[in-house]
Design goal:
The structure is a single chain. By secondary structure, the protein is mainly beta. The two termini are 25 Å apart. It has a 16-stranded antiparallel barrel with strand order 1-2-3-4-5-6-7-8-9-10-11-12-13-14-15-16. It has one helix at 11-15, and strands at residues 35-41, 44-50, 56-65, 68-79, 82-91, 101-109, 112-118, 126-132, 138-147, 150-165, 168-178, 181-195, 218-227, 230-240, 246-253, 259-267.
């Protein structure tokens, strides 16, 4: 998509192998139960294609916003039943697809996602390194990028400390260096009791790196950020069908981005 290709992910694939290639008891009809399409509008759409083991094989996306036209095809590679690479061939106003390039690498320690690596055309890759606690849940995220003073070295630019309530991240305390010194932001999450709608597409592209929503068992309905003495609130309202699947999300943003976005979702049978 324009701001983020996809920030759809499933908690299960981040922690354990989800693929069931050797599960002979699995009904073939189950391969068609995933999320098919999510759209901000009729002209801003992403459509998913699946492998026979229910992992996502491709995501085709595109948008038209006046003269702002773009899109592409993301493809995903797997090893040991885990997503390891995301590749992208994109187009803009020329409507000509560019070369297929490696966008993201996923590195694991055992069954846990340890690093999200985004190669850069110049300089060192950007790296999000995830640390886990004794309970097996993500505890801290360290963000690295090339050091402006010495681009042959990595520099830690931000640290997130994660707090959990049950199987959801309920609070994140982020610290980074601002123009006048250290900055701290606290994000507090409120969640519903419905299964995270993102789970059906497993882990697709975390193009912008670590996304806390990807680890949650349930849907985020409200995020409040406290920073510099100000409270800024993002809200997410969902509508569900008779199968208890999210079919519409209305998001109102006041930080990270601004404005209102409406996503609608379609599913395989």
């Amino acid at each position: 998509m324009k701001k983020t290709l996809l920030t759809l992910a499933g908690m299960a694939l981040l922690f354990t192998a989800c693929s069931k290639k050797d599960d002979t008891a699995q009904s073939e009809d189950n391969y068609l139960k995933g999320l098919l399409k999510g759209a901000y509008s009729i002209t801003d759409t992403v459509r998913f294609e699946y492998n026979s083991d229910k992992t996502v094989s491709r995501a085709r996306f595109g948008w038209i916003d006046g003269t702002d036209v773009g899109g592409g095809i993301a493809t995903f590679k797997y090893a040991n039943n885990k997503m390891t690479e995301a590749w992208l061939s994109a187009y803009s106003e020329s409507l000509v697809f560019g070369p297929n390039t490696l966008e993201t690498q996923f590195i694991y320690a055992g069954d846990k996602l340890q690093k999200i690596v985004r190669p850069q055309g110049t300089g060192l890759p950007r790296i999000d390194s995830i640390g886990y606690g004794a309970n097996g849940k993500a505890e801290k995220v360290f963000y690295y990028e090339a050091d402006p003073a010495d681009r042959t070295k990595q520099k830690n630019i931000q640290i997130d400390v994660l707090e959990w309530t049950g199987n959801n991240i309920s609070k994140i305390t982020s610290t980074w260096n601002g123009p006048t010194g250290p900055v701290t932001a606290i994000d507090t999450y409120i969640l519903d009791d419905k299964p995270n709608y993102q789970g059906d597409v497993l882990m697709t592209v975390l193009e912008d790196g670590f996304e806390p929503e990807a680890f949650n068992a349930n849907n985020v309905t409200k995020v409040t950020r406290t920073q510099d003495g100000l409270d800024r609130i993002n809200t997410f309202d969902f509508e569900y069908n008779s199968q208890n699947k999210a079919i519409k999300q209305t998001a109102t943003y006041k930080f990270k981005q601004s404005g209102t976005e409406v996503k609608t979702f379609e599913y395989y049978k």
